[in-house]
Write a structure and sequence with these properties.
The chain is an alpha+beta fold and 174 residues long. It is built from four helices and four strands, in the order ααααββββ.
Length: 174
């Protein structure tokens, strides 16, 4: 009698393992919303970080990645960047690189687009004042001309809008 019960228990265990499919959760698809042996929706489409990336790097650095640009906006921003660079060079040669000096110059050459100018900072928390200014010019719906100017260097980039800071590149998180 005992061997009959043992055989029944073994049969149930084997059937359960066979139905669960090599470690898949037997009850994960009770409502039938996904195909058998497919990846659960919470992990579908995600990619594991590379071996040298910290966990959650992609999520944590998302604010530092600019959005996509429309082709037309990118073309206009690229042409605008040349004019911005020339204006910054002239301001740099005059020694007028503070936000108060740059804002009117950038607004004149970038009309009708919105312009933001701020003090340049450094450090991991972006709290240490630095020589010069940072700027961002919104071009169209999706592009920016952004960068910085100091007494020794000029940075001009064409990029999409940053999710949290607009056209001005956010500070590094670390």
């Amino acid at each position: 009698m005992r061997s009959h019960k043992t055989a029944a228990v073994i049969g149930v265990v084997v059937a359960t393992l066979a139905l669960s499919g090599c470690g898949d959760d037997l009850f994960s698809n009770m409502n039938g919303t996904r195909k058998a042996n497919s990846e659960p929706p919470s992990t579908a489409g995600t990619h594991p970080p590379s071996a040298d990336s910290p966990p959650n790097y992609g999520d944590n650095s998302a604010a530092r990645r600019p959005g996509a640009m429309a082709r037309e906006d990118q073309q206009v921003a690229t042409a605008e960047a040349q004019e911005v660079k020339a204006a910054l060079k002239a301001q740099q040669q005059r020694g007028q690189i503070s936000p108060e000096h740059l804002l009117p110059v950038l607004e004149d050459i970038s009309a009708p687009w919105r312009v933001e100018v701020g003090n340049r900072t450094t450090g991991t928390a972006a709290t240490v004042p630095a020589d010069g200014s940072v700027f961002g010019i919104y071009v169209g719906e999706s592009a920016c001309v952004s960068g910085a100017v100091s007494s020794s260097r000029i940075w001009v980039n064409v990029n999409g809008v940053f999710p949290e800071t607009g056209c001005i590149e956010p500070p590094s998180p670390h």
